[in-house]
């Protein structure tokens, strides 16, 4: 039987803070205007075919736009882009106004990101208070010299090989 109480919610949140997570911007175009949000709940799902999964809150404006347009991008931020992550983590009308980006394959591509993956929606699944969007990856572009931005214990950082 699953324990559901306020203590478990706090313990779960603390346990998840111990996971080192990628920092991405999930972007979507609507009438040539970029929209998006910062997301750490992103994972590769399949290599053949290439699929990616991203979890977005049921209340997410970005989720509503992805459902309407059927396309989105995953922008893996570089270690130098923590300010972009913070800017896009908040609610706002024009969050991309001060961020370098361009349209590429019908989706927003954040300038100087470590990797970019344009996707079309392959599935939309329930996940508690979130939706799990499965994206069919249409292309992949990386900057081999960029270190990825990560999030661990509520702090931005990057991966260092040992």
Automatic annotation (TrEMBL):
<comment type="similarity">
    <text>Belongs to the non-flavoprotein flavin reductase family.</text>
</comment>
<dbReference type="GO" id="GO:0042602">
    <property type="term" value="F:riboflavin reductase (NADPH) activity"/>
</dbReference>
<keyword id="KW-0560">Oxidoreductase</keyword>
<dbReference type="InterPro" id="IPR012349">
    <property type="entry name" value="Split_barrel_FMN-bd"/>
</dbReference>
<feature type="domain" description="Flavin reductase like">
    <location>
        <begin position="16"/>
        <end position="158"/>
    </location>
</feature>
<protein>
    <submittedName>
        <fullName>Flavin reductase (DIM6/NTAB) family NADH-FMN oxidoreductase RutF</fullName>
    </submittedName>
</protein>
<dbReference type="InterPro" id="IPR002563">
    <property type="entry name" value="Flavin_Rdtase-like_dom"/>
</dbReference>
<dbReference type="GO" id="GO:0010181">
    <property type="term" value="F:FMN binding"/>
</dbReference>
<dbReference type="Pfam" id="PF01613">
    <property type="entry name" value="Flavin_Reduct"/>
</dbReference>
<dbReference type="InterPro" id="IPR050268">
    <property type="entry name" value="NADH-dep_flavin_reductase"/>
</dbReference>
